[in-house]
Amino acid sequence: VVKKMGGHNYKFYNYELDEFVKEEQEMEKALYHAIENQELKLVYQPIIDVNTNEIVEVEALLRWTSPVYGSVSPLVLIQIAEQSGFIYEIGEWVLREACNQNKQWQEEGYPPVVVSVNVSALQFDQPNFVEMVNKILEDIDMDPSYLELEITETNAMDRVDEKLEKMESLKSMGVRISIDDFGTGYSSLAYFTRFPIDTLKIDRSFINDMLNDENAKTIVTTIINLAKTIKIKIIAEGVETVEQLEYLKQKGCDKIQGYYFSRPVAPDLIREMLKEDSKLTPES
Ligand code: C2E
Ligand code: MG
Ligand code: MG
Ligand code: MG
């Protein structure tokens, strides 16, 4: 908190800090009730295979509509949840809810997709995390290969040996692993060859800049090329324009996610999109 406030003027600093702490405690209380009162829900953003134009994955994204605060950014929510310890309960709820939803779509006969779930570092580092995932998959009777777990590049760099072991266990169960927000953590791609990962998600800041900024462009094409040589799939996040899509396609990017195709939406809208998909490809 202190670092984030980055105060200079002593008086100003303390006032701000007090306010922040007070707000945080209030939000913590509100979050406690949010879980009880079922104010949390998930929305899903499609991820498209650029070669077939089909939805192959959806990312589950947490939404909190608080009667007091209105809609709260998941980044704020997750930070408060981590500080208060609610992250374990919320994280487990997210995993179960996302898998339940995916299983439901499958049972309704929609073309199966992978559901990708964001996992916070604290949650991943829980000693029984792998068992928890396994239990959820068993309870729901969902094929593990339709679950992908996203861990951010920055989070993956901490307690690495432990993480590697857990990733190996998850992989052997058949669960997929991806590195989220790749490029923001300054780790080399070579370093990631020791991780048993399926996918790198290029952070949307690079996609946003790549057509106007040579550095961003170089970073994006380098990540795509290196990933190809080590047989890791690439998802470009935050694709908003057809120009970005065309550029990424031309460079050999596998999948895209972004407002160009769709914002994160409620499960019913995913149903509509999957229906369209199956109409486009009657042979599948
Ligand atoms: P993320 O995992 O990198 O998710 C992608 C974020 O980019 C989402 O923001 C999504 O709405 C946004 N996005 C997607 N396409 C575009 C685009 O074309 N343009 C722009 N401007 N934005 C786009 P959202 O839903 O606000 O989530 C923010 C972050 O909160 C996520 O980033 C993730 O780090 C975290 N988060 C969300 N849900 C969960 C969760 O269930 N658990 C955990 N641990 N973290 C979560
Ligand atoms: Mg993500
Ligand atoms: Mg991301
Ligand atoms: Mg991101």
Describe this structure in words.
It is a single chain. With 284 residues, the protein is an alpha/beta fold. 50% of the residues lie in helices and 19% in strands. It contains twelve helices and nine strands. It has helices at 2-5, 10-36, 74-84, 87-107, 121-124, 129-140, 153-156, 160-173, 204-209, 214-229, 242-250, 267-280; strands spanning 40-49, 54-66, 70-72, 114-118, 147-152, 176-182, 199-202, 233-236, 255-256. The chain has an eight-stranded mixed β-barrel, surrounded by five helices. Strand 8 (233-236), helix 11 and strand 9 (255-256) form a beta-alpha-beta unit. Helix 2 packs across helix 3, helix 4 (87-107) runs parallel beside helix 6 (129-140) and helix 6 packs parallel to helix 8 (160-173). The radius of gyration is 20 Å and the shape is globular. Mean pLDDT is 89; it is low at 1-15. The site of ligand C2E has 22 residues, from strand 2, helix 3 and strand 6. Residues 24-278 form the EAL domain. This is Diguanylate cyclase (GGDEF) domain-containing protein. It is found in: Cell membrane.
- The number of E-state strands comes to 9
For the terminal residues, how far apart are their CA atoms? 52 Å
Low-confidence stretches: 1-15
Spatial arrangement of strands, main beta sheet = 1-2-4-5-6-7-8-9
- What is the succession of H and E elements? HHEEEHHEHHEHHEEHHEHEH
Structural shape: globular
Characterize the biggest β-sheet.
8 strands, mixed, barrel
The share of residues in extended strands comes to: 15-25%
Rounded to an integer in angstroms, the radius of gyration calculated over CA atoms is 20 Å
Number of helices: 12
Helix residue percentage: 40-55%
- The chain-level structural class is alpha/beta
Q: Report mean pLDDT, rounded to a whole number.
A: 89
The oligomeric state of the chains shown is: single chain
Bound molecules: ligand C2E, magnesium ion
Protein name: Diguanylate cyclase (GGDEF) domain-containing protein
Domain EAL: 24-278
Subcellular location: Cell membrane
